[in-house]
Amino acid sequence: MFLQKIVILHFNLYFCLNFKMKLRLRQLRQGGGGAAAYGEARLLGGVAVAGGALAYEKPCYLLDGDVYRIQETCPMDTKLKINELHQVYGVEDKEVTDVVIPDGVDVIKPHSFKGCRKLKTVKIPDSVGTIGPGAFADCSSLKEIVLPQNLRMIGANVFAGCTSLRKVSIQENVTAIALTAFDGCKRLKELTVSPANGKYCSVDGIIYNKKKTILYMVPAKAKISDFVVDKKIKKIAKGAFRGCQTVESVVVPRSITKWNDYTFQDCKNLRTINIPEGTTEIPFLFLSGCSSLEEITIPESVEYIFGSAFARCSSLRSITLPRNVSVIFCGAFDGCDSLERIEVDPNNEKYASVDGVLYSKDMHRIRCYPAAHPAETFTVPSTVTVIEDSIFSHCKHLKELHIPDNSYLCENVIKNCPALTAIHLHIKDIKGAPINMAAFFGVHASCTLYVPKGCADECRKLLTFAPFTVIREEEQGEDGIS
Q: Cβ distance 373 to 387 under 8 Å?
């Protein structure tokens, strides 16, 4: 009985809602309802859009002022996909070249036009307040865009990979621009901001805060090669110069001593930059990918060098660490293919340098073996107890490596060393040796492993030494090093 009542109640509810909906449709056909009807009409039907007309399956609604009116027949050009909440969520034809988004659309959802590589022009109405992440990513033919009046945020990767984009006009209500909004826009010359914007302004296509005390963003093709940061600038924002291809030198005022991640990442033509005294941290990916940078002076005040700070600075030949550096995080110098030497101030309490190789002060760990170190033969000191991941990575000149008996070998100790032809393992107890199973997985097959007399057969049984096609025995001295 109880179940029967529930069924009857649900049926009555459905009947009432259906009746009210038909009544509202009749009112819409008669042109009534005003603005209130607009809110109800927007909940009806699936929709496709082209040229300013909203094309629903059945019936069709066209925007007339602030009211959607019913039209018995309607154009079914389905270039755009728009849902019942007036959100663009995709495009039927990825080969589309020109798009006009109709007035009344509120949102362009994430990845809506991603990969439309022939898209050249987009007209966005001022009704759009949100453009989702990656909405126009990889639209490689898009050259210029005027953002809508109501837009408040330019989100992550919105125009990433728009390699033809040259100019972007930002309106007055934008209050946030994501770090990756214009990633890969390698031809972007100018970012212009409406004078009415309360947070940002633009000078020579570069974005600052309204008071011009914060430098926010320099486009990839900024019309300047020698950049002198104004003395009024108190802060350079995260990733401000990221990907800039035209800047060759940067002069920073003494007042700037706090830096953010990614500041100069991938500035491929940057040759010189000063880091002011008083700076205590070189942040994550700070100068990563600055492949034209040949030298850098680290001020005495620096204490921390964070991960990948100088990674892929492929022209950097030498670097000197001052006495106050106490922590160097992993990968700080990864990919520095021309780095020959790392020197350390003798008064530094945490690090030491011997023949250009970076060690911990107690000589128990190798911290960095420079990729372009000129030595063809290197013997790991017997004081070293741990050889960490990728310590010998992309070493250009290293041909022969000697490893002592008491060193623990971590994963991928050796990686992509093209000249390395011989590794001498001075370990007598091969079976119980402190060697990670993947320690030699980065070794080229042409490299020969030399082990103490009587150890070769045992090595061939162990997966650890599987990368070696040739394992030979040799006489070794009492100290393990012949």
A: no
Residues 84/44, Cβ–Cβ less than 8 Å: yes
CA-nearest of 179, 273, 166, 289 to 221 is 166
Q: In whole angstroms, what is the distance from residue 207 CA to residue 210 CA?
A: 9
Give rounded-to-5 percent helix, strand, coil for the chain: 10, 25, 65
Dihedrals phi, psi of 136, to nearest 5 degrees: -120, 25
Nearest CA-CA partner of 138 in 99, 185, 170, 177: 185
Structure token pair of residue 356: 């250009």
Q: Which helix (H) or strand (E) holds 37?
A: helix 34-41
233-252, pLDDT tens digit by residue? 999 999 999 999 999 999 99
* pLDDT, position 478: 52
* β-strands 121-123, 98-100 pairing: parallel
The pLDDT of residue 21 is 45
Q: Are 216 and 208 in contact (CB under 8 A)?
A: yes
CA angle 126, 130, 133 (to 5 degrees): 135
Q: What are residue 379's phi and psi, to 5 degrees?
A: -110, 120
99 contact partners, CB below 8 Å, separation of at least 6: 79, 80, 91, 113, 119, 121, 122, 123
Question: Token match 């926010």: residue?
Answer: 216
Tell me the C-alpha distance between 422 and 414, whole Å: 12
pLDDT digits (tens, 9 = 90+) for 4-39: 544 444 444 444 544 444 444 444 444 443 333 333
Q: How many helices (H) and strands (E) does the chain have?
A: 3, 39
